[in-house]
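User: These chains co-purify. Model them together.
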Amino acid sequence: METLSLLLYGLQIALSWENLLYCFAGCLLGTLVGVLPGIGPVTTVAILLPFTFGLGPAPALIMLAGIYYGAQYGGSTTAILVNIPGESSSVVTTIDGYQMARQGRAGPALGIAAIGSFVAGSFAVFVVAYFSPPLAEIALRFGPADYFSLMVMGLAASVILASGSLIKAIAMVLVGILLGSIGTDVNTGAIRFAAGLPQLTDGIGFIVLAMAFFGITDVLVNLEKSKEQHVANAEIKNVLPTMEDLRVSAPSIARGTLIGSILGILPGGGALLASFAAYMVEKKVARRPANFGSGDIRGVAAPESANNAGAQVSFIPMLTLGLPSNPTMALMIGALMIQGITPGPGVITERPELFWGLIASMWIGNLMLLVLNLPLVGLWVKLLSVPYSLLFPAILAFCCVGVYASSNEPADVYIVAVLAAVGYALIKFDCEPAPMVLGFVLGPMMEENLRRAMMISFGDPSVFVTRPISALCLAATLLGLIAIAIPSLRRRRDAAMQE
Amino acid sequence: MTSFPQRNNGSTPMRVRAPKDFWAGLFFVLFGAFFAIYSLEYSIGNIHRLGPGMFPFIVSGILTGLGVLLIFKSLINDGDAVHRFALRSSGISLFAVVLFGALIKPAGLVISTFTLVVLSGIAQPQSRFLHILALGGGIAIFCALLFVGVIGLPIPIWPSW
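Assistant: Joint model of the two components:
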């Protein structure tokens, strides 16, 4: 099998001492930071991004991926022990996980989360390996009009699947697109919206934007919440689930993995949607559903497997199309661009060592997490009690040093301060920064493809509806937006988000 | 700490019923209008060859429209009030960030990081001053070791005089 031999090739790359080290460092650091109270996976990846500055593309991506799974697992740990989900995709885990912890079963809950994540991760690696190359091949035939419509669809999907106001989310995407258009226009060389500031001629750096909205804005929002946490039953004696636990959870892990692998590819909320759906399915198929909500191990196993599978499968659109399906993938694209690589369908064939090395390292990373987490749970529990008042100055410091390190330009630090203040105000008005960051990343690509499409078609805008792929994407976008605008469906979405 | 001002409170028939939507809408209108007007400086081009002003103009136009829509909605539907801004803690933190930017070139990594951590740390009344000093020293040394020592970024550690 060709894919298998390519996977072996990737394994050789991932198993080099250098890459193993970075994969390990990424997993460890990601879990370490992700487990800290109030720091979600996106923030973790953003804060730790500068660590990869000096690395080559493959080690950098491998390390970032490690940071991402580590942070996800860290988020699940806080969900189970402190009832605080690190991000929306571990919200469901709090329901039964925290109850288990309160009953003194925190150990098995964490253990089953780790095992479920490992199983899901191992399966998802094959999904990514088998589905990406053919998808990239199809994508190579996409014209600029198709790309433009695909991006419109991706942005619309992320808006539809996000919680909260639809108008605000769309508006935030547009704000991001406009922020992305600041700087030199590649086609004409015109310097746009720079207000005469030489520091803006190259535009706002991606690191600057990510640190501002995911790092510092996050700190400002957290500072005003009173941070009273109750670590449930800090004494964890036994992390290993019993045979009975494993027997009960095995089917749930399998179902969660499958759901995560399918839903994870959707733009916008792959892992989030997957964990919710997996929990719903468990509730439906379980023979004694009465246990759910009061510490049922299946309520931890299924969503944890689903969100890990979803997290990994969400690499597919990023690796094959160059499109981020969530803010973390936007960060990955930003990191690749810093390395001088434009993500897209060409990456698999032009940089096979990058693609296959990353996929193989995903599996190794999952194995490392399993080995790392079972013995180190005690340490993570201690980290949970680090007070936020000592934590946030450290986050501010890492963000500032990271921003400065990315450009050696003090003005970038000032821009971060301004953007963070704006981001803080916007969150006060219930406008989430995530759609804005997606817009920022996709905006320049959309403009470029729009221009090319119009040039190729000699100014005929009908290409967007006559090319089948483009037409399909636009139709799906329209359908989705109409569906969400219908009040009854909208209420159902809001209810599902509430649950 | 101040509460956020509300316009048209009660006296006129035009009353803001959903302050969050109103302020968000106002932001989008101002932001969109700024970019729309600014983009008129650049060539719009023609439909065959779009100029640098075209795409931003369209996007900012839609954004302004959405902002107006939000403002209208905020006058009709009831919604949440804007929570108080934590002006003290966020103000000090942001000032500390700006100060870092001002210090990094002349004073080097250690001094600017230390200042940032200590200044933002004392903004929180519940932490002890000695802890903050130790934290500042620790993070400053850690950043110097990591970013300059291990990663090898060309940032001066100490003042250059």
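DSSP finds 22 helices and two strands in chain A.
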